[in-house]
Description:
The structure holds 2 protein chains of 2 kinds.
Chain A: E1 4-7, E2 10-13, E3 19-25, E4 31-37, E5 43-50, E6 53-57, E7 64-67, E8 75-78, E9 87-94, E10 106-107, E11 111-115
Parallel strand pairs in A: 2-11
Antiparallel strand pairs in A: 1-3, 3-8, 4-5, 4-9, 5-6, 7-8, 9-10, 9-11
Chain B: E1 4-7, E2 10-14, E3 19-25, E4 32-38, E5 45-51, E6 56-59, E7 62-67, E8 72-77, E9 86-94, E10 98-101, E11 105-110
Parallel strand pairs in B: 2-11
Antiparallel strand pairs in B: 1-3, 3-8, 4-5, 4-9, 6-7, 7-8, 9-10, 9-11
Amino acid sequence: DTAVSQTPKYLVTQMGNDKSIKCEQNLGHDTMYWYKQDSKKFLKIMFSYNNKELIINETVPNRFSPKSPDKAHLNLHINSLELGDSAVYFCASSQELQARWGTEAFFGQGTRLTVV
Amino acid sequence: GENVEQHPSTLSVQEGDSAVIKCTYSDSASNYFPWYKQELGKRPQLIIDIRSNVGEKKDQRIAVTLNKTAKHFSLHITETQPEDSAVYFCAACKTGNQFYFGTGTSLTVIP
């Protein structure tokens, strides 16, 4: 049983194309995230969603947009791909933000995006 | 927002020695501090965490200490083994589950 799964694992595409990465979690978590990991291994948060509401939106280009059809899914859409978008993108989820304490975030296996 | 700094960026130790990784955070509202291990080509996975109402936590060879006053926390790995080689990330989180990660430490354990 994979707790957080994302597809595809690898994605190679040309500049200017539009692509999507899908993420699903079966943990019943209420918060889901997208992180970008660049070549230096930095993990930068891009978005988080709780109950279909965007609660974090770091300074990412508006070419990136998260889409959450339901609590278990948070997909990442990228328009007009650029060379600099090449990175590994991780989806993650964690428990409801109403708790007093933060809780563990579970990560998907990552999607390696290569823009050529 | 929160700013998490992590040092060192790379660390090499001999097998059996100890390794220490340090992080500082800026937001005093942060109350949960997880540590993640990421092996090459794999996802980050939680190895230990600590809440702000505790000063130290230990799990076998791994321990984490937290100094709320100074806003820093550290990961200690004793009796290192080659399989400990990986990238380690600290993170700070406050109510609302806004995770902010450090820049990572690449640990190499030399057999």
